[in-house]
Design brief:
about 110 residues, mainly alpha, 3 helices, about 0% strand, elongated, CCDC157, Coiled-coil domain containing 157
Length: about 110
């Protein structure tokens, strides 16, 4: 797997996954409000306040600079962990309760 570190195809796929994940998080936040936890990757900042667009622009594949490209790949992987951390701490949604007005099935 080490030979894939810095691979442009892997990084492009990872960037798409991060964009999709961030979109889902923003959708949930718009309905339930942000979860205010420290970022795993940047512990001095709140995870929901990270500028993902700027991070994705900065940590990109750079042809001719394998060292920075490999660092960028590792940071993108760490950002997946960081985004996952935004979903912790929120209790699971309550189980739907049966409505009192629903008729029960009759066993005939």
């Amino acid at each position: 797997m080490a030979h894939l570190l810095g691979s442009q195809a892997c990084m492009d796929s990872l960037r798409k996954d991060l964009t999709d994940l961030q979109g889902a998080i923003v959708d949930v936040f718009s309905r339930a409000g942000p979860v205010r936890f420290p970022s795993w990757k940047f512990p001095d900042r709140v995870a929901c306040d990270l500028d993902m667009v700027a991070l994705l622009e900065h940590y990109d594949h750079v042809p001719g600079d394998p060292e920075f490209t490999q660092l960028s790949h590792a940071v993108l992987l760490e950002l997946v962990i960081d985004r996952k951390g935004q979903t912790k701490g929120r209790p699971p949604p309550p189980s739907p309760q049966p409505r009192a007005s629903q008729p029960r099935a009759l066993n005939l």
